[in-house]
Amino acid sequence: MIDLFIIKVGGNVIDNPVLLQAFLEKFATIPGKKILIHGGGKIATRIGDQLGIESKYVDGRRITDAATIDVVTMVYGGLVNKQLVAKLQAAQCNAIGLTGADANIIPATKRPVKEIDYGFVGDVKPDMVQITALKALLEAGLTPVFAPLTHDGSGQMLNTNADTIAASLAIALSASYQVRLIYCFEKKGVLHDPNDDNAVINLINKDIYQQLLADKVLSDGILPKLENAFSAINNGVKEVLIGHADDVLSNTTDTVAGTLIC
């Protein structure tokens, strides 16, 4: 029996007030223990532009220089996180907004410079996650809402991929709970054809995944989610689902939509 749902919401859902409100109203009604992890990259880009701080990317990944880490800390940890918490409170869900620095829950290491200097980007491993305080919040009936930020233990905030944070939390908590990790975005699941929203692959196991990679069926955007999904499955997480934010309620039941990873 699943007794903890860890749900990451991102993509265009965060940027669309109508989609986001619909998602949060459904999320609030999920019974039992749950954790929400959110992104917010487009909002950070917009605020940065307003402040005259140019966003820089390499292969779609944000370069987090000194000015940018200030922007994403403000936007992710402040603006987006607290707006989500306020909306969940309005929906009678007793949420608490967190970053990885709070209660030292998610320490990370600054990504080493190799061919590319990503700046203040944090890499986190599941064995780094400190779950004692997090479990206390869950047992007290609170719903943690995590911004995609970690810290290095020496006072520096770090920008960290939200999908990775979700998988790391799921793995760390799987020793204490039966966890279902759910990735919610604007697609119905993993697609055979990125241009056909109905071409959902309902089940992906390790063998199917390798064949899909060999056939070059998968879009570049879905690959990080699948990598994190299989990392979670291989490290104790009971179930992983990838699906549309509209389906978040059904994906917390036995009647799931989207793509089941096993």
UniProtKB/TrEMBL annotation:
Record flagged with keyword Membrane: no
Molecular function terms from GO: acetylglutamate kinase activity; ATP binding
Span of domain Aspartate/glutamate/uridylate kinase: 4-243
Pathway membership, UniProt: Amino-acid biosynthesis; L-arginine biosynthesis; N(2)-acetyl-L-ornithine from L-glutamate: step 2/4
Site positions for Transition state stabilizer: K8, K225
One GO BP annotation of this record: L-arginine biosynthetic process via ornithine
CDD domains listed in its UniProt record: AAK_NAGK-like (cd04238)
Binding site residues for substrate: G40, G41, R62, N159
InterPro entries: AceGlu_kinase-like_sf (IPR036393), AcgluKinase_fam (IPR004662), ArgB (IPR037528), Asp/Glu/Uridylate_kinase (IPR001048)
Domain of life: Bacteria
Coiled-coil segments: none
Compartments reported by the entry: Cytoplasm
Enzyme Commission code(s) on record: 2.7.2.8
Swiss-Prot/TrEMBL catalytic activity: N-acetyl-L-glutamate + ATP = N-acetyl-L-glutamyl 5-phosphate + ADP
Keywords: Amino-acid biosynthesis, Arginine biosynthesis, ATP-binding, Cytoplasm, Kinase, Nucleotide-binding, Transferase
Keyword flag Nucleotide-binding: yes
Cellular component GO terms, alphabetical: cytoplasm
UniProt cross-references to PANTHER family, sorted A to Z: N-ACETYLGLUTAMATE SYNTHASE (PTHR23342), N-ACETYLGLUTAMATE SYNTHASE, MITOCHONDRIAL (PTHR23342:SF0)
Family: Belongs to the acetylglutamate kinase family. ArgB subfamily.
NCBIfam families: argB (TIGR00761)
Chain's role: Catalyzes the ATP-dependent phosphorylation of N-acetyl-L-glutamate.
Protein name: Acetylglutamate kinase
Protein's organism: Chitinophaga eiseniae
